[in-house]
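Job type: complex structure
Entries:
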Amino acid sequence: MDVWIGPGRRLRGEARVPGDKSIAHRALILAALGEGESEIRGFDLLDDPLRTLEALRACGTPVEMAAPGMLRVVGRGPRGLGAPTGVLHCGLSGTTMRLLAGVLAGQPLAATLDGDPALRRRPMDRVVEPLRRMGARIEAADAASHAPLTIRGGGLRGIEYTLPVPSAQVKSAILLAGLNAEGETVVREPVPSRDHTERMLRWLGVSVEAANGAIRLAGGARWSGRTFVLPGDLSAAAFFLVAASLVPGSEVFIGAVGLNPTRSAVLEVLRHMGADVMAMPTPSGGDADGPEPTADLVVRSAALRAITLQGALIPNLIDELPVLAVAATQAEGVTVVRDAAELRVKESDRIAAVVQELGAMGARIQATTDGFIVEGPTPLRGATVDAHGDHRMAMALAVAGLVARGDTVIRGAETVTKSFPRFFAALRALGAEVA
Ligand code: S3P
C-alpha cells in the first residue's frame, strides 16, 4: 500500500495511541500462566500481540474479546499450556517468538515456533543458547539458531546468565522459563533494558529481586488472575511528539501514556533538544491501576538543537531512534547516535534504512557501524520512499513527509498494522494531509 503525505499543515487536537505493544504480550502470557480469569483492558488489535494471543489459544488457553479493547483470558497455571496442534505462527513478531520460546521451554511438551521470512532472518541464538543451558531441547533451522524453532520443554534448572546484548526480550524469555525451573534464575544485564516483565510479575505477587544489574527469580511461583490495564504506547506516541515539535503551530495532546523509566528516555532527549513536551502524571488509583506509571502528554512545536546519543541511554530509546533521526534533520547542529548496532537486527536494518530513505529526501545523514550522524537543519524534499517492511520506518517517514517540501509517497505503508493500524487516520485527524 502506498500512502501519500502532503507538506506540513499544523497538527492540533488529541491523538489516541494503542495500548502498549510490549506490555500487551506480557499481559497475555502472564494471564495465561496465572490461575483463573484475567481481564486485559486497552488491548488494541495490533498484529504482533495478536500473534501471541493466537499462539496461546492454540496451546489451549481460552481467550475471548469480551468488549472492544477488553480481553478475557482463563489461565491454567504456570505449567498449564497444552501441546499445540500445529505450528505457532509468529508472523513478524520477534517479541512473540522470543518470549514464547521462554514460556514453551518450561512446559513439558513439544511446539514449533515459526514466522514470516523476515522473522526467520532475525537472530534467535540469543534466546536459544540460554534456554538450552537451562535444559530445553531446541532444534533450529541452522547452526546459527534461526527459526523455525522446535522446543521440547520441561525439566529446566535455573541458571545465572549475563546478557551479551542488552535485550528485554532475551531477559524476559529467561525469566519466563525460570518460572518453571528448579531453583533460582539470575539474569545479569550490564545495561538496563525495559523492565515490564519484572514489574508485572511483582504486581502479580511473584518475588523478583533486582539489584546491581542482577534480576533474581525463584522457580515454582503461582499467582491468580487480575485485571491488566495497558497504558498508551510511548513508542507510538513518539511519532506525534516529533511531528508536533517539527511542524510550526502544532499542539497535540496524548492521554495516559506509559512512562516507565526504563523506556521513557525519548521524553528527556526531546526536551534536551529543545522540545516543548509537558507530562502530567495521571492520578493513580494505586495498585489496581497496574505496575506502570502513566501521564498525559502535551507537545507544542519548538526549535530543536542537535544531541549525542550513546551508551546506557540507547536500549532505553532503541525503538524511537528512527523518528529521532527525523528530528535530527531539523535540529541545529550535528546529531551523533552510537552504540546502537542493535538497530541493524530490528524489523529492518534501521541504520541502512534510515540513511537511505532520509538521504533520498535530502537529509545530510551518514551511517556508521553502530549508528548514524545527521547534520541539521536541512530542508527535506518530498520523495517516493520505502518502509523496508518496517512499521517504525513507515511512521518515521510519514513524519519526515510532514516537514518536507512537496509530496511524499511511502511504499509498503501497510506495515504499520504491526503496532499502530490507525496511525495514518490519527495523523489525518490532527489535520495532516494523508491519502
Ligand atoms: C521489546 C524489546 C526491544 C524492543 C522491541 C520490544 C520487548 O527489543 O526493540 O520493540 O517487548 O521486550 P530487544 O529485546 O531485542 O532489545
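Summary: The mean pLDDT is 97. The domain at 3-19+231-429 is CATH 3.65.10.10 (UDP-n-acetylglucosamine1-carboxyvinyl-transferase; Chain).
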